[in-house]
């Protein structure tokens, strides 16, 4: 995956599951943590950013209609090179983000690879306490032991729940939380293991996050500034395998199973989260004209199919505006 730098200059080496850094064309101008962002004073809440381009009106209107219909919406998009806020809707609110929080686990795993006893080839075995259904393919495979690199690739590619739980057991949820806090994230967290059912003593959500912090996190990953360039590159490489393009990215026209190379001038890395009444996505889209970092999260009453479909339509509308901006 060759993410070009600004303009027509050639990008750096492709970021892949082996961990080469991806240069997504971000500028170091907005390199501070969320708590010290140069955009801390940007308009927030249910208001469009004053200098937002007109071509974001469609997505903004769609999100507004959903909010009026009772859907809780949080969203943010920033220019990848300049950090300029293109639009925001309650981007400071901490929302349920389902599997989006697995990005924080991948960051801790990538950072741990510097330890002599925890390398890419370290073998980890699944056990009964890790068992969980839903997303992922490891639960359907016969092999019971996989390397750290393979497990991280499974999480990136299919949001594999079983692989997630095995990696959490290996590095410790407390370490993921400590890493998250060290990055300056206060409204974004991986709260728990993946569970088929959540009881009264369990965390109510797998993860939470604010659109403002998530866009900062992905921009920093693109610049190679989360822990270090090698760590950031590995995380970007794993995420580039993601096969879920059903939400915001459904508007980009990319092949869900093969989009690590430039396609019609587009390159994209994303992570989605899906649960009952929850849809969330954070990502980076780079095109011929510009690049954007975006995050959209929705919380809604999932008792009616039409409500869910309306939420999906709203996310696709945002994606269409993002595509128009970069292409």
UniProtKB/TrEMBL annotation:
Give GO MF terms, alphabetically: beta-lactamase activity
Q: Which Gene3D superfamilies match?
A: DD-peptidase/beta-lactamase superfamily (3.40.710.10)
| InterPro entries found in the cross-reference section | Beta-lactam/transpept-like, Beta-lactam_cat, Beta-lactam_class-A
* Secretion signal span: none
Superkingdom of the organism of origin? Bacteria
Per the database record, which ranges form the Beta-lactamase class A catalytic domain? 77-299
Arranged from A to Z, the UniProt key words for this protein are:
Hydrolase
Entry's Gene Ontology BP terms: beta-lactam antibiotic catabolic process; response to antibiotic
What protein name is recorded for this chain?
Answer: Serine hydrolase
- The organism encoding this protein is Cryobacterium luteum
């Amino acid at each position: 995956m060759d993410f070009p730098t600004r303009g027509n200059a050639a990008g750096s080496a492709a970021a892949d599951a082996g961990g080469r850094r991806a240069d997504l064309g971000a500028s170091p101008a907005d390199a501070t943590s969320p708590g010290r962002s140069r955009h801390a004073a940007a308009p927030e809440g249910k208001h469009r950013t004053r200098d937002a381009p007109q071509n974001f009106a469609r997505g903004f209107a769609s999100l507004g209609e959903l909010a009026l219909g009772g859907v809780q919406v949080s969203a943010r998009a920033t220019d990848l090179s300049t950090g300029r806020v293109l639009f925001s809707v309650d981007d400071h609110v901490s929302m349920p983000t389902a599997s989006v929080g697995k990005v924080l686990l991948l960051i801790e795993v990538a950072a741990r690879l510097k330890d002599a006893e925890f390398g890419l080839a370290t073998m980890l075995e699944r056990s009964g306490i890790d068992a969980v259904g839903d997303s992922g393919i490891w639960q359907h495979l016969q092999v019971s032991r996989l390397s750290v690199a393979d497990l991280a690739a499974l999480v990136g590619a299919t949001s594999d729940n079983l692989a997630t739980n095995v990696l959490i057991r290996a590095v410790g949820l407390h370490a993921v939380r400590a890493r998250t806090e060290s990055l300056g994230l206060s409204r974004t967290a991986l709260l728990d293991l993946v569970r088929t059912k959540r009881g009264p003593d369990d965390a109510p959500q797998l993860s939470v996050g604010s659109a403002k912090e998530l866009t900062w996190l992905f921009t920093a990953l693109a610049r190679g500034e989360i822990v270090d360039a090698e760590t950031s590159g590995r995380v970007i490489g794993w995420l580039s395998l993601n096969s879920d393009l059903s939400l915001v990215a459904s508007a980009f026209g990319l092949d869900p199973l093969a989009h690590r190379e430039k396609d019609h001038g587009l390159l994209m890395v994303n992570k989605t989260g899906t649960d009952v009444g929850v849809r969330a996505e954070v990502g980076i889209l780079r095109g011929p004209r510009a690049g954007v970092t975006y995050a959209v999260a929705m919380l809604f009453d999932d008792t009616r199919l039409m409500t869910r479909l309306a939420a999906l339509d709203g996310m696709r509308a945002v994606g269409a505006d993002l595509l128009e901006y970069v292409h």
